[in-house]
Write a structure and sequence with these properties.
Radius of gyration of chain B: 22 Å
Number of helices of chain A: 6
Strand content of chain B: 25-35%
Structural class of chain B: alpha+beta
Oligomer: heterodimer
Number of strands of chain A: 4
Helix content of chain B: 25-40%
CATH architecture of chain A: 3-Layer(aba) Sandwich
Strand content of chain A: 5-15%
Shape of chain A: globular
Order of helices and strands of chain A: EHEHEHEHHH
Shape of chain B: globular
Chain lengths: 181, 368
Amino acid sequence: MTAKRVQLVVVSEDKQHDCFIRHFLLKSGWNRHQLRSRVASKGKGAASQWVLAQFPQELRIYRSQAGYLGNGLIIAIDADTRTVPEIIVMLARKCEEAGIAPRNQGDRVVFVTPKRNVETWLAYLRGESVNETDAYRKYDCESDCRQDVDRLHSMCGRGILDGHPPESLKFACGEYNRIKP
Amino acid sequence: MLTRLYIDNFRSLVNFELKLGSVNLLLGENGSGKTTVFDVLYRLREFISGRERTGTAFPPHELTRWQTLGIQRFELELKTGQGVFVYSLTIEHDETRRRSRVKKENLTLDNRLLFDFEDGTAKLYHDDFTSGPQYPFDWSQSGIGALQERPDNRKLTAFRREIERFIITTIYPSLIESESRQEENRLARDSSNFVSWYRFLSQEHQANLFELFNALKQVIPGFHSFSIKEMGDARTLKVLIADGNGKGKTLTYSFDELSDGQRALVALHALLYGLKGEGAYLFLDEPENFVALREIQPWLTTLADFCGQEIEQAVLISHHPEIIDYLAASNGKWFDREPNTPAKISDRPAQMVDDLKSSELIARGWNR
């Protein structure tokens, strides 16, 4: 039953993140039974706080079961008006408050921190010229992002992001190496 | 996509409006009206397709008990590639409440009439919306259901075909009959004809079975494939299960030798993969029943990922925390009802409590 054991826990602030990440992971060879989604059931603001609050708990579980139940952890949280490094500092502080060591080099833990938000990435992947300040349109149905993710997966396969990608997406691609099969 | 449903004077649904998106979860206490919504959709599908008449689809005992009004109204708004269809039906019950008849039935596409029936006279409109024939018609059945497709009424019949794509079911593994006498292109309300419906899939949507088998290999240890065997006049569904690693020798089991949970998993995955790309609308009542906790989220995320593309739309009824916590906050329709009063609905409770999961909020009680 090993193939059905969860190998990655994905904690997201909304279902658009969750769908985006899941589709990328499925394209990359994981199957659905290896993934476990946890999505905030709250409005904006409260949802990012929820993700921040979950992080130390999930990191603790990951470390206690590394190599067994939880082989990796993905934390997805929009940077919004903050910078990506600021979000990473916030995550580290949450760990300190909870009395555990922040993420270290060896942890198979990935931060997905779109700036301004995941819709910025989706607009870029649709071929639009984007910046990380403006707000871009949301999809009515989260699964509409799948073709955008296909493009990202294809670019990752070639090892280069086309055009002028958002800095936060370039950062996330680097993060992915932590769990890349 | 079914974007709006209006129901008036049917059981607990009075002046009731439900607006829907691509993925939807109907939630609320037992008796709050959720399944009644599915019952109405089922009856409308059967009525519009011409398989049922007013007497069986809308019998008088289904009128709202605490009202004396003899008029029932139903409306569907369906957004399609051709535009927005709006279907309206008014059923009139006589004073003795022994007979019912169609008072009005009409269909528009982008606010332009395609069909209009009132007081015993039907009027047809061509695909270019110009006036067509007018004729007396039976009060007891759908005028739309009775029409044959012709080159000048394709829009109207396209609406009927869209309604035919509604699959409204509850999976009851113990009711699934193991023998099938013929293929059936509609899954029954209680899923009892699953094997006959599977036979239809295996004939008409054979290309989808490869993916279905692959999906089932993930959820049923050793699953290899299905085969259909003749047994006299009937056919039975057999399941081939392979040894340990799935590559060894296979043994053949009858479908009813699978556990309830395994049969439910087969049906749930057949709904997703068997009609992939066919524009199906799935209305599933408590799909998680019988299914192991570990299997619910992979199925649910597949459903969510398929909606709007591989399948047209999904509406679920569920009391399960796994489904509630994934869908309630963003896709929930919260039902509430006091005894002998109409069902009420809202997109979210008046107060969501931070740090409390939706399922926990429901368990503790919520205010509309």
